[in-house]
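User: Sequence recovery, please. Input:
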């Protein structure tokens, strides 16, 4: 961790970023995922590297290039992401949860579901809330020192995002209105509002995901 000495405002800091949508198996050949492209999280990893941080990117398979210099931890399921995040955040300064984590997972069938057996009745169970688990861990250990969440909402953006910030004990919530065509899933641009624990709201202009990433990293730098 200290072998490669680099300059920049986040030199010597460890930043863990999650990216992509989790993949939850239904059976050995099928899965449930979501529309997250991994672009915003990967851009945040790049921006943190550019600021000189040591960066671990915990990502589902996105097809995106891994930012040069990041440590990649490949995961698929919400459970794998939880395990990786708890391990990596144990000595991290900042956790940034840009990933879209499944809230429910199918109880997977051991064998491939056969068409002839008819329409399957898939049973779901809840996944763990990673940020909630991180908040518990942090209360006990002090690590990660800070955590940042994303909230993609299709309605009541600011209210929903602010209550998630409180519920998940975040230092910053990046609220993302996915009802607009130029923001959110798959596209290269994003329009977000930064929400702070004191209730302050900072809307950012619609811009490239790289620009949103830089604004988030600026906030990390401001924490010192
Ligand atoms: N998140 C998480 N673990 C989960 C689900 C979400 O850590 N099992 C994180 C996401 O990575 C994101 C933040 O929590 O940073 C908010 O995710 P979101 O899906 O908006 O919130 P939920 O609490 O799952 O609420 P809902 O989906 O019902 O809106
Ligand atoms: Ca959710």
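Assistant: Recovered sequence (224 residues):
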């Amino acid at each position: 961790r200290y072998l490669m000495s680099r300059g920049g405002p986040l030199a010597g800091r460890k930043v863990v970023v999650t990216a992509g949508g989790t993949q939850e198996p239904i059976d050995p050949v099928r899965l449930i995922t979501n529309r997250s492209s991994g672009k915003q999280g990967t851009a945040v990893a790049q921006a943190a590297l550019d600021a000189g941080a040591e960066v671990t990117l915990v990502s589902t398979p996105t097809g995106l290039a891994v930012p040069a210099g990041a440590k990649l931890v490949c995961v698929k399921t919400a459970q794998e992401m939880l395990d990786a995040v708890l391990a990596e955040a144990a000595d991290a300064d900042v956790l940034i949860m840009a990933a879209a984590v499944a809230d429910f997972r199918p109880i997977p069938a051991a064998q491939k579901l056969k068409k002839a057996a008819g329409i399957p009745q898939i049973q779901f169970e809840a996944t763990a809330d990673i940020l909630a688990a991180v908040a518990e861990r942090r209360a006990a250990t002090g690590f990660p020192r800070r955590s940042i969440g994303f909230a993609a909402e299709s309605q009541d953006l600011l209210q929903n995002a602010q209550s998630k910030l409180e519920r998940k004990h975040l230092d910053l919530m990046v609220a993302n209105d996915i009802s607009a065509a130029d923001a959110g899933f798959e596209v290269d641009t994003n329009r977000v509002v930064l929400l702070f624990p004191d209730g302050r709201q900072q809307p950012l202009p619609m811009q490239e995901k790289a620009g949103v990433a830089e604004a988030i990293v600026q906030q990390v730098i401001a924490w010192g």
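The two ends are 19 Å apart (CA to CA).
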